[in-house]
Amino acid sequence: MTGPDVPDTPEALDLGVLRPRLPSPLRETADERFARHGVRLLLKRDDLIHPGLVGNKWRKLAPNLRAAAGRTVLTFGGAYSNHLRATAAAGRLLGLPTIGVVRGQELADRPLNPSLARCAADGMRFHFVDRSTYRRKSEPATLTDVLRAAAAEDAYVIPEGGSNPLAVHGCTALGEELRGHGGIDVAALACGTGGTLAGLAAGLAPDQRALGIPVLRGGFLAAEIRTLQGEAFGGPRGDWSLDDRFHFGGYARTTPELDAFAADFERRHGLPVERLYVAKMLYGLVALTEEGAFPRGTVIAAVITGRPDSPAAL
User: Fold this and answer.
1) CA distance 110 to 127
2) String of b and e for 188-203 (b: at least 16 CB within 10 Å)?
3) Contact 167, 59 (CB under 8 A)
4) 262-277 pLDDT per residue, tens
5) Among 170, 84, 93, residue whose Cα is nearest residue 126
6) What is the pTM of this model?
7) pLDDT band at 13 (very low <50, low <70, confident <90, very high)
8) Cα(13)–Cα(90) distance, rounded to whole angstroms?
């Protein structure tokens, strides 16, 4: 990808040394819950792109890492942030210094949880901030203060979840890989910050549509996606929609029903199902199919954006 926001210079990182598996595999899955309604299910295995930068983490981080061009990378996340884990892993693999601005000043005096310990093992340095400051992190004055306090005034900043115009452009490749492939009608994925869906929809063909299953409560995501597409492309792109019914209580929430569904899907198809994102998307697709939301003959590509033991989708 080239353009005014992506350096095409000798200083830009060559991410090819990481050997990503692109395009990611696309495999049809026989499942009677879809077949009896005349619907075909394909799995787009973005979880197989790279063992450290799984799924949409690769697609969103890669263009930002190129733009960083060797500078320290600073980004934001909670104590269990998959995005922090992926950024730290990328830093280790590419030899880039990374800083994680972590929500919760009180965490600074506690032992690191397993997620943050993994980040630290990959070389990430932490800067903990109180929750009020974290909520205002996108305000220019607050960001300046955070960068100064973290001794990172010259760092390359990636927002929480990695969703920015560069990330959206990076995710258009996902739509382009599905464009016209096998007669796909619907490309579905779980959504956190909306950057992946914004790019996916832009990359699809005009007769294809993107379906997002938000994993957070609140109903704010549609506006975020419109904003991201406006920043990335100057206006809306592609045919996309959201179904907010399958968040199971919100981010990082699961229920016994969802756990049972995911375990059953694993037994049926031999696919490890990540619970916080992927399981909610697959559950939603089964429910929508049984509701008759997809006409007979519809082909759905479900994007698998994470694994249980690796950073998942945001």
Assistant:
1) 13
2) bbbbbbbbbbbbbbbb
3) yes
4) 999 999 999 999 999 9
5) 84
6) 0.89
7) low
8) 12
β-bridge mates for residue 242, sequence order: 212
b/e string for 208-238 if b means 16 or more Cβ within 10 A?
bbbbbbbbbeeeebbebbeebbeebbeeebb
DSSP three-state, residue 157? strand
Structure tokens at 64: 């930002």
Which residues pair with residue 240 across a beta bridge?
Answer: 210
Place of tokens 């350096």: 7
Domains and CATH numbers, the chain: 15-54+164-303 (3.40.50.1100), 72-154 (3.40.50.1100)
Residues 6+ apart with CB under 8 A from 164: 64, 158, 195, 228, 231
**pLDDT tens figures, 231-258:** 999 999 999 999 999 999 988 899 999 9
Q: Are 77 and 312 in contact (CB under 8 A)?
A: no
Task: Reduce the DSSP state of residue 214 to 3 states and report it.
Answer: strand
